[in-house]
Amino acid sequence: MELTATNIVIICLALVALASTVGMAVNRNKGAGKGIGESINQFAIATVVLPIIAILAIAGVLSLEVTGTLLGAAIGFVANGRQNRIAK
């Protein structure tokens, strides 16, 4: 595998997703009685799903329309949860 700028970006995004997944697992196992709440779901979308969508888009697996739809849905989910918490 040749180290081009595209490959370096893909590797960095994959490392972010992997580190976030490990961090979430460690955090959930550290505290007894912790469940899966709304904030951990938003964190997972922002740090795992968005990089994976970006990787697939950069690799050419996803079309522009699908990429835009997935990014919009993910960002909307995260932003909506933040607004609901502030409004309460």
Task: Write a structural description.
- It contains three helices and no strands.
- With 88 residues, it is mainly α.
- Helix 1 packs antiparallel against helix 2 (38-58) and helix 2 runs antiparallel to helix 3.
- The chain crosses the membrane at residues 48-79.
- Keywords: Membrane, Transmembrane, Transmembrane helix.
Strand content is under 5%
| Uncertain residue segments | none
Question: Would you count the extended β strands for me?
Answer: 0
Distance between the ends: 50 Å
Instruction: Domain count, please report it.
Output: 1
How is the topology of this model organized?
Elements: H1 5-30, H2 38-58, H3 64-87
Helix pairs in contact: 1-2, 2-3
Question: What's this model, at a glance?
Answer:
The chain has helices at residues 5-30, 38-58, 64-87. With 88 residues, the chain is mainly alpha-helical.
List keywords for this structure.
single chain; 88 residues; mainly alpha; 0% strand; flat
